User: What shape does this take?
Amino acid sequence: MNPPHVPPRSKVHSPGNKRLDDVMDLVAFAARPMPLVRLLDEAPRRIAVVFGADVCSLYLLEGDGHELTMRGNVGFPHDALGHVRLAIGEGITGQAVEYQRPISADLAYHHASFKRIETLDEERFPVFLAVPIRGKSGPLGAVVVQRKAIPFEGADIELLTALGGLISAGLRHAELIDANRDRVAPRRTGGGTRRVTLPGRPVVSGRAIGAVAALRRPPQHPSPDDVPPPSGSTDVRLLSSAFDVAEKAIGALDSRARSLKVGRDAAFLATHIEILRDQRFRDRAAELVGQGKGLPAALGQVAREVTRAAASITRDPFLEERAKDIEDLCDALSMLARSDKRAELPSKALIVGDALTVFDLLVSARAQPVGVALTSRAIGPRTSTLLRLLGVPAMIGVDGLFRWASDGDVALVDADHGLLVLNPSKSEVAALREHKRAKTAAPGRPHE
Assistant: This one.
């Protein structure tokens, strides 16, 4: 007797299965074209929800292709972005990228490749899964999820590997530029049209957009069209006023440093105040200005005299640093006394350079820059302190900055993730506006 016919089973999986619903939301999100910033903001949060993870991190492969940098995260302090870096093969994450295979651990800190990062206190989240993000010709980065408890199962590893493919599609559009790669062709100033993303290290969080302007210093020889001819008595009065303005401004910066709790790192400001109050310095500058040399030339001569004196005595690092500080202050005094348009910055610009000095807090800051991006030559404790005192979105360590950026280019500094986008797309500009609106609506909302 033939068995009764059993019709094939079918089922519509309606909403209600939380994990399936979360996966479908993530797939719908990742399928949309979007700026890299939005992907870095949203993908870790959504992946963490899917896996019930306490932490989710996105690492991007940057530079010469041998370094992974955390650019997206939920669960760790915000300042980890752009600063947590691993070589290929370093740590569990670096090893997953090197082998191009997922790696999981129930107790990560017992794994032979575990690398402890002091600022993260990862031991709180020992259940670990790292999956490489693969591109067309090699790795693009890695996605990592971590839990306090409950090991990841085989289905979790398979799912995260598949979701990594969705993230890969979004990352391929970002085109993080190898800093050592030359331009295809030189461009005229302000004539850039190609969209380029340059990675760096965030210092002051925030996002802003503006026209690129390189930091400038006053020329030693005044332009007859822009600067009145030297007048001894008039210039002496202007110089005296400039000394007073500079001393008051640096005093205000010193107070701001204490309010920001970076007073110890800003101890160099006290040296600047001491220099400005040095009567011998004031008298020598006034003497040269009174002789009709003109402000820039007279202050330049004072700076050269101090530098030569420091070099002739000994190669004392303190004296050399002091000579540089005096040179910097002489430039600032020159601009505060009589501005030279050749050294002025355009208003609301995104300023770029190799270094930031007290001159920029006294002079360049008057142009109200919207953000700052500096090259790897600017890395150092004083630079970080100056950027915090300036108080606009800022990042350092942007290799290839002057290879790709020119005065007048439009650039977006994303000092939340540590990315500088030259000639951003309309969608990136729209994402920035949306971010600013959300931040204004919830000003007290902490970073995830």
Notes: Residues 232-259 form the longest helix (28 residues). The chain is about 40% helix and 15% strand.
